[in-house]
TrEMBL record:
Binds specifically to cytosolic chaperonin (c-CPN) and transfers target proteins to it. Binds to nascent polypeptide chain and promotes folding in an environment in which there are many competing pathways for nonnative proteins. GO terms for cellular component: cytoplasm; prefoldin complex. Heterohexamer of two PFD-alpha type and four PFD-beta type subunits. This is Prefoldin subunit 1. It comes from Poecilia reticulata (Guppy).
C-alpha cells in the first residue's frame, strides 16, 4: 500500500524534471544563439574600428541613423564603436552567467531526484 504514493511522488518529480530540463535546454540554446550573434556584432565592431583608425583625422565619416546618415567626427564614431563594444561584452558576460545558472539548476533538480530514489531504496 505504501508503494503507490511513493511511485506517484517519483513520477511527478520525474515529469517536473523533464519539463524543467526541456525548458532549460531551450533557454540554453537561445542564450548560445544570442552569444553567437553578439560575437558577430563584436567582430564587426572591431573590424570597423580597425579600419577607421587607419583613416586621416580629417576624414568625413557618417553614422547610419535609421534610413539616413549623419556626419560625425572620427572621435565621435570611435566613441560610439567603443560604447557598442562595451555593451556587447557586458551582454555576453550576462548570457554566460545565465547559462551557468540554468545548467546548475537542472543539475540540482537531478540530484534531488537521485537523493529521493536512494532514500526510497533505503526504506
Amino acid at each position: 500500500m505504501m508503494a503507490a504514493p511513493v511511485d506517484l511522488e517519483l513520477k511527478k518529480a520525474f515529469s517536473e524534471l523533464q519539463v524543467k530540463m526541456i525548458d532549460t535546454q531551450q533557454k540554453v540554446k537561445l542564450a548560445d544563439l544570442q552569444i553567437e550573434q553578439l560575437g558577430r556584432v563584436q567582430k564587426h565592431t572591431k573590424l570597423t574600428q580597425a579600419e577607421i583608425s587607419t583613416l586621416p583625422a580629417n576624414t568625413r565619416l557618417y553614422e547610419g541613423v535609421g534610413r539616413m546618415f549623419v556626419l560625425q567626427s572620427k572621435e565621435e564614431i570611435d566613441d560610439l564603436l567603443t560604447d557598442k563594444q562595451k555593451t556587447v561584452d557586458d551582454k555576453i558576460k550576462e548570457l554566460e552567467q545565465k547559462k551557468v545558472y540554468l545548467e546548475r539548476s537542472v543539475k540540482e533538480a537531478e540530484d534531488n531526484i537521485r537523493e529521493m530514489l536512494l532514500s526510497r531504496r533505503a526504506h
